[in-house]
Each structure stands twice: as C-alpha cells, then as structure tokens.
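Review form for a predicted model. The reviewer records the input and the model, then writes brief findings.
Reviewer: anonymous (R2)
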Amino acid sequence: KVKELMAHQRAALDEATALRRKASRRDSHEAQLHEKLRIISGTAANKRLVSSRGEQTRPMMEKVRQAVFNMVQAQAGTVGGLPTGTRWLDLFAGTGSVGLEALSRGCGETHFVEMDPWVTKNVLGRNITTCGFKRQSVVHTYKAEDFLRKAIDLPRFAGGAFDFISMCPPYLLVSYPELFDLLGRSKLMHETTIMFVEYPSQLAQQVPDKVGPLVRVKDRKYGRTLMAIYGPAPLAGEEGEEEG
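Model under review:
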C-alpha cells in the first residue's frame, strides 16, 4: 500500500508539473501578442490584428500584402476589390491577415487552415471577430497537408473548388514538392482559380510550372519575399519582375 500511495503521489506531482508548464507556455504566448498588423483596404480597413512573435507561420508584411492583392485583383478584372460571392482558401493561415484582407475587399467566404489550436482560438479567432467576419469565415484546425489529403479523399470537402488560394508556409518546415503534389491531386482548384505561393530563394527549383489545371503565370520578388502566381493558361506570358 505504501508503494501504491507513493506511485499515486508521483503521478499527481507529474500532472501538477505538466499543468504548470502548460500554464507557463500559455502565459508566454499571451505576453508575446501584439497589434502591429492591420487590414489595408475594404470594409475592415485599418482594423488592427493581433499576432504572436512566437508563431511559426509568419504574417505577410503589409507592403507585400498590398502589392499581391493589387495584382490578384487586376488578374481577376476587378481593380476596386474582389468579385462578390467568390471563395478564398488561406492555407497556413496564422493570423488570418491574408484571408481577412480578402473578405474586407469583397470576397464572399474564406476558409482558414491553421494547425495550432492555440493560434486558432487566441489569434485567428480573435482577428475574425475584430473584423466582423465570423459569418463569412470557416476555420479548419488541421495541418495543411492533412487538409489537402482529406480534400483528395472527399471531392466536395470544404465546399469544393476555390476561386482564390493563398499558401504562405513556414519556409523550411514544410515539403514544397509534397504540398504542390497534394494541391494538384485535390479538387480545390478550378480552371480559373488564381493562386499565389510564397517561397524562399533556396527552394526556387521546387516550385513547379504547373499545379493541377493552373500554370505559373508570374513571379514576383518583394524585397526578400518571392511569390509565384498561378492561374489560367491565357494569363501566362508576362515575365517576372522585382518590386521593392
């Protein structure tokens, strides 16, 4: 009985230690939250977004976000905003700054894919509420790769194909060939989908010229940020250019 009592005491101590560590991590996360990001344009313009310095998914810089959305809107033929009723898929959502910018500019619905439950609750969820887009937002707490695998197995998963897709992963923590392969085999793109993918220069050779029905139509460099733009084949032909 003494041994049994000692074992219970050790288990209780271990559990208490684990709870303290969890609380410490939560407090550390909260201490790192800041509001340096904002929505740039549209109905939620200038709304402040929270982000965490400890996130592996880095939020896209405002200058880059502005340039990318201007280009996407030009490609979609709606310079003043995004077409109403369209659907956006934000992979590796993190703060949600990209998908929320899309909603602010007129997109009808955004699906956010973010694997970290703490981030979805305390960062992404808070930002969705701040911008007033709870009704237009769907949050999937999945690894992006698992989300894409499910979309392959269930063709109508997440409502089918999206009009716009953004993929801004934590560069060296993912396999770009795997992500592109899964995207290409999923039914998340239709023939006129516009997609942009952020990637580092050292992995440029892993960025393909074709993904599913889409072809790589443009390349852009914004400072140290590289972006591949995919769309319908008729959009191809422009050479990449450097901005910033």
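Findings: The chain is about 35% helix and 25% strand.
Further findings: Helices lie at 2-31, 62-76, 97-104, 117-131, 144-153, 176-185.
Recommendation: see findings above.
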